[in-house]
What we know:
Layout: H1 3-22, H2 29-34, H3 39-44, H4 48-61, E1 71-73, E2 80-83, E3 91-95, H5 108-121, H6 136-149, E4 153-157, H7 160-174, E5 179-183, H8 188-197, E6 200-204, H9 209-217, E7 225-230, E8 232-233, E9 238-239, H10 242-251, E10 255-259, H11 274-277, E11 286-290, E12 300-304, H12 306-315, H13 317-320, H14 327-342, H15 345-364, E13 376-379, H16 383-397, E14 399-400, E15 403-404, E16 415-418, H17 426-442
Parallel strand pairs: 3-14, 5-6, 5-7, 7-10, 10-11
Antiparallel strand pairs: 1-2, 2-3, 4-12, 8-9, 11-12, 13-16, 15-16
Bound molecules: pyridoxal-5'-phosphate.
The site of pyridoxal-5'-phosphate has 14 residues, from helix 7.
Amino acid sequence: MELAEFNGFNANRSQTLHFQHEAGLIKSARTRGRDSGSGAERTRTLNYDQIFDQAIDRLHSEGRYRVFIDILRNKGAFPNARCFAGHNGPKPITVWCSNDYLAMGQHPKVIAAMEEALNDVGAGSGGTRNIGGNTHYHIQLEEELADLHGKEAALLFTSGYVSNDATLSTLAKLLPGCVIFSDELNHASMIAGIRNSGCEKRIFRHNDVAHLEELLASEDPDCPKLIAFESVYSMDGDVAPIHALCDLAEKYNALTYIDEVHAVGMYGARGGGISERDEAAHRIDLIEGTLGKAFGVMGGYVASSRKVIDCIRSYAPGFIFTTSLSPVLVAGVLASVRHLKQSSVEREGQQASAAMLKQKFRDAGLPVMDSTTHIVPLMVGDPVRAKKISDILLAEYGVYVQPINFPTVPRGTERLRFTPGPSHTETMMQELTEALVEIWDRMELELRKAA
Ligand code: PLP
């Protein structure tokens, strides 16, 4: 999700309110002021059900009402799963859109570690980190993650979303007069953090270093500055120019914050992300990641200097006031991070699969988007068509790939986003490509001519 999405949401919201006023669903403040009456009278002017119905109807009319698939993954056999869509019992399917990128959620070491922790210490953590919820697993994992990124310390959160929101909002509040410079395609969780910080923000065009410099140069040289960006942008599969961004940060004395959610575990010799691969980790002040995608379990974190981590730990409500991750989850992540630090088999398998699928799509004339990473997006450009292709794939071919619609991507760029991993075989890819070509043909969509 990106800024455009949030802006889009705002636009929709004000349009919606406007519409509701027009339709008489909500009385205007002026009219309300003239109401003689009691709270009860005023309440009768609001039709909550109608407002909610209209909110959902809008999504249906735009073809982007979200339907969640009902599946169970088959333990140890990813990407195979069972789907409960019909009435004839579960049907076997192949999953093509999971963010368990390396199938670590099914890895025997991860499962064994979680089983062992469950048997040893039970299910939950028992509270916040401050009151009852700090365990040896949490401490060990934070040490492991700090080491992964070459930082002094790390801090765990209950998700990547929470880590971005809590860290960015807290950091900027601690820096009076801070201005945050944010890539226009940053994830919703970063946008939420920036917004919740209440500080000034400047949006730079996606990966546009010259634009960022323009914005930096126009600020007071003495005000605190933070540049926030991602490494791998997950819907297009492109990568940030990290060194160029760090050069600007040095020139204008700004802090740097990178979201490596779609890169940790997958890039760099030990899975430290693009910042490790590009030998830039030491130039970045805060590195944020998830434990729910390539590491296969759940949770989020930031890694930084001991001082910065101590500040976030001490001030961030999103860290302080919530029950910590279950030690069972943390034990699973610990096994996953440790494994991926010393094994590149999964990373190499994923890269080979992504390259092969892109090539098959290209050879077949399917509109595969340019992506320099493991993400393989296929442009459709229409929400209704994207949903229809996804529905046919599931119903007729046992292929699960979710359509990606606004607000996750801009309108008119709706797509299917494939995430092949080390466990997707060439046969699966061939069958998928043939199925897509058949559907493209059936729906009279254009295939690109071979070059
Ligand atoms: N950052 C980015 C770029 C993401 O795409 C996501 C989730 O999709 C998150 C953060 C949130 O991570 P999590 O799923 O662990 O909450």
